[in-house]
Design brief:
Elements: H1 5-26, H2 35-45, H3 50-56, H4 61-73, E1 77-81, E2 89-93, H5 95-115, H6 121-136
Protein name: MarR family transcriptional regulator
Keywords: DNA-binding, Transcription, Transcription regulation
Domain HTH marR-type: 1-136
Length: 152
């Protein structure tokens, strides 16, 4: 069997580098490390519950709350009580938050361009197909990631 670190190590390095790159690129916009991911989810699911955001991003409720409060303070989103469950909040983009979509996409594209800069067009296609195939497996019903509910 091959050493799993040969796969997991580079994936982890790419992910950490991605977060560091995005944090640096979005610092001028006062969007912190990992916070852009919350905006990115809202670009596809504006009005999602705060709890759902935490689940989608596989972060703790506390981490989600801190990120949402920070983005709210900066004017990128706002929270509103859920009409059906007054204990819950739904999260919505502001106009400023919606305007950040282009900036975030530009920065993501720049990161991916750098990441794949030494790849041939064929290698880029193969890489995209393989990385997609590998990640799809993690959505299978049989795969259970760790619970991010209450952390003690």
């Amino acid at each position: 069997m091959e050493d799993p670190r040969e796969i997991c190590g580079p994936i982890a390095h790419i992910y950490r580098s991605h977060l560091a790159y995005m944090a640096k690129e979005l610092e001028a916009y006062r969007v912190g490390s990992g916070q852009f991911e919350f905006l990115f989810v809202l670009y596809h699911r504006d009005g999602v519950s705060q709890e759902s955001l935490a689940k989608i991003l596989a972060v703790s409720k506390a981490t989600s709350t801190r990120a949402i409060q920070s983005l709210e303070k900066e004017g990128y989103l706002y929270r509103q009580r859920d009409e059906n469950d007054h204990r819950a909040y739904r999260v919505y983009l502001t106009e400023k938050g919606k305007e950040m979509r282009g900036v975030i996409l530009e920065k993501l594209n720049s990161f991916v361009d750098t990441l794949l800069s030494d790849f041939t067009p064929e290698e880029k296609t193969i890489f995209r197909l393989l990385i997609h195939k590998a990640s799809i497996k993690l959505f299978d019903p049989g795969f259970e990631p760790p619970s991010y509910g209450r952390m003690t």
